[in-house]
Design brief:
heterodimer, A: 215 residues, alpha/beta, 6 strands, B: 413 residues, alpha+beta, 3-stranded antiparallel β-sheet, 8 strands, 69% helix, 9% strand
Chain lengths: 215, 413
């Protein structure tokens, strides 16, 4: 994959580039400020971009804003946002345009390199990938909790993984279940919650997240 | 003989002081006299009264503050203890989104105009202004008493020309009353010109409001600094460490030599991040201050200092933890300045309690020239001390040496 890495701290930028190279991916450009990020995204149109939220010059959410601006120019430009803390607020802003190809992760998610590269590939292919920390917060918020009371524990697990952006096959692998078992769970779950199933697509994640998000 | 000399000196000094009291006290009566004179000179008939009264009233009002200030400074200078004035000050003037300036009462086109308007309002609403006006009725009394030795001199001058016994009488009166005639001005000024309790309280409230605003701003800035240090420092280093380990793990199979190099880097990174964390913790709350108290913490600070620093202090000084922290960081800042800016060779730190105050002196033999610039480190230090009613005095002539003195009142000894 051709990747752009936007990160202001040299240590992390360098580490990220080395990791991606070790996995055989090509980092076409790096950026260390918000404006640089926007320029690099629009110029290189990478297969996927890894963007840090906080960046100079203002040391606020420059990276996130640059990514959102780039996606307004090029809808669906795959972007994976990395941060040292995750906020539901940012996740909502990322998903708000309804386009595909977004990811939002804690920086330490790279420690599980296989899964991180997997999520990166998924985003590059137009999927959605959410950090379990974001999903956990979404699932445990007051309204979601009440609404999800009707689900069995297994269905709950499947829903969480679905919200992270995994396909039925990936969920089956993760939970050591057969594909057909996962299909059974999702069907009954969607029936209970009244969401239309749309396997393997970004829309499904959006449906789940929107559902959890409803006041 | 010596007694005679000291008597003459006190008579001379008293005469000068009496002249000053008389001059200051008679300013307002002089304005009235001038008004009456002009009235008689120019105007005829019943309309005479109106311009005289207006002239006198305006003159009295305008002179009330300068005359009061004169009396206050004279009395303060003679007795060595200042007479608190208690004037209220004009609050801050802010620019509104409309482009107009708001002074708390009205909108004005320019900042200057807004300030002038606020000052004029204050002249009428400030209780101290009315107190000054009242004093204008009292001041002539002091002037009358002070006029006795002056009158004596006048009599003497006239008397020696006409009949010498009258002249002698004038000299005797002048010399005998000169040491005492100015004295009634002192209790009068103290009684009628001092700030009342309410004025002092209002002043104190203004001061505390300003201090509170300063402290809040400083605290918020400090917390943001800590968040940023953690975010860009230790937190980022831990992520980098994880990244290195992941990369090394991956490289183990394909390129073990590079994997080893990456792991070595990771180890160095871990050590660096620990150092950074330790420095950060020390900047928030020095562990030695918690463990051993102020005096030992300052001794530890002196040991860490790159230049030889001696500490002169009692074994233990008890103060509230926030005061201890402020003083500790103050000493740290002063020592840093001594090393970095003054290029000092040695420094001396002394801590003492003086009554109910903690007195800290930091001296160095550096090149001096330190001053409290707005936004500078010393201004920050002064602000942090002000939160505890503490002060920072700096004596740092160009060429050195520098002597800084921090005094912080401590209730809890």
């Amino acid at each position: 994959m051709r990747i752009v890495v936007a990160e202001d701290l040299y240590l992390l930028r360098d580490g990220m580039v080395r990791l991606l190279s070790a996995y055989g991916h090509e980092v076409v450009a790096t950026a260390s400020t918000g404006p640089e990020t926007l320029a690099a995204l629009l110029r290189w149109r990478p297969d996927v971009a890894i963007v840090d939220v906080r960046m100079p010059p203002s040391q606020s959410d420059e990276g996130l804003r640059a990514a959102l601006a780039a996606r307004r120019e090029v809808p669906g430009l795959p972007v994976l946002i990395l941060s040292q803390h995750v906020e539901q607020l940012y996740a909502r802003e990322l998903l708000a345009d309804g386009a595909s190809g977004v990811g939002y992760f804690l920086k330490e998610s790279v420690f599980d390199a296989e899964e991180f590269i997997d999520a990166l590939t998924r985003v590059a292919a137009g999927g959605t990938a959410m950090d379990p920390a974001v999903v956990t917060r979404l699932l445990s918020s007051g309204t979601a909790n009440r609404r999800l009371e009707r689900l069995t524990e297994r269905e709950h697990e499947v829903l969480a993984l679905m919200a992270e952006g995994l396909s039925n096959q990936a969920i089956a692998r993760r939970l050591f279940l057969s594909d057909s078992a996962v299909s059974k769970y999702t069907t009954s779950m969607f029936g209970k919650l009244g969401i239309t199933d749309d396997d393997g697509s970004n829309r499904r994640v959006l449906a789940v997240l929107t559902y959890l998000d409803k006041p | 003989m010596r007694q005679l000399g000291s008597w003459a000196r006190s008579a001379c000094a008293g005469f000068v002081r009496a002249c000053a009291v008389f001059g200051a006290g008679m300013l307002v009566p002089a304005v009235w006299a001038l008004a009456v004179a002009l009235g008689i000179w120019w105007v005829d008939g019943p309309w005479l009264l109106l311009p005289v009264v207006i002239w006198g009233a305006v003159g009295t009002f305008l002179l009330s503050r300068p005359v009061s200030r004169m009396f206050r400074s004279l009395v303060g200078g003679w007795t060595g203890s200042a007479v608190p004035a208690g004037y209220r000050t004009v609050g801050s003037v802010v620019r509104m989104s409309t482009g107009y300036w708001w002074n708390g009462h009205s909108y004005e086109r320019s900042r200057k105009r807004a300030r002038e308007d606020a000052e004029l309002r204050l002249r009428f609403t400030d209780p101290a202004a009315w107190r000054d006006l009242r004093f204008m009725a009292v001041a002539p009394l002091a002037a009358l008493v002070a006029a006795v030795p002056l009158a004596g001199v006048a009599v003497a001058v006239v008397g020696f020309a006409r009949a010498w016994p009258v002249g002698v009488l004038g000299v005797v009166v002048a010399v005998a009353t000169a040491p005492y005639a100015w004295r009634p001005a002192v209790p009068l000024a103290r009684r009628f010109l001092s700030a009342t309790r309410e004025m002092l309280l209002a002043e104190r409230v203004d001061e505390l409001l300003a201090q509170r605003a300063d402290t809040t701003v400083a605290q918020a800035a400090e917390i943001r600094r800590i968040e940023r240090d953690l975010h860009d420092g230790a937190q980022a280093r831990l992520v980098a460490l994880g990244l290195s380990l992941v990369t090394a793990e991956k490289l183990m199979e394909s390129d073990p030599e590079q994997a080893r190099a990456v792991m070595r880097e990771a180890r160095v990174g871990a050590a660096t991040s620990l150092t950074e964390l330790r420095d950060l913790v020390r900047g928030i709350s020095p562990p030695v201050l918690n463990e051993r108290g102020l005096v030992d913490a300052v001794r530890a600070l002196a040991l860490d200092c790159p230049l030889p620093a001696t500490v002169d202090a009692p074994d233990r000084i008890e103060a509230d933890p926030p005061v201890e922290a402020a003083v500790y960081f103050g000493i740290a800042e002063l020592l840093t300045n001594a090393v970095k800016h003054a290029g000092a060779a040695t420094a001396r730190i002394s801590l003492n309690r003086n009554g109910s105050a903690l007195v800290v002196e930091v001296d160095d033999d550096g090149s001096g020239g330190a001053d409290v610039r707005p936004g500078g480190g010393l201004a920050g230090l002064r602000r942090r001390l002000a939160a505890f009613d503490g002060t920072l005095e700096l004596d740092s002539p160009a060429g050195g040496p520098t002597r800084a003195r921090m005094v912080v009142p401590c209730g809890s000894w």
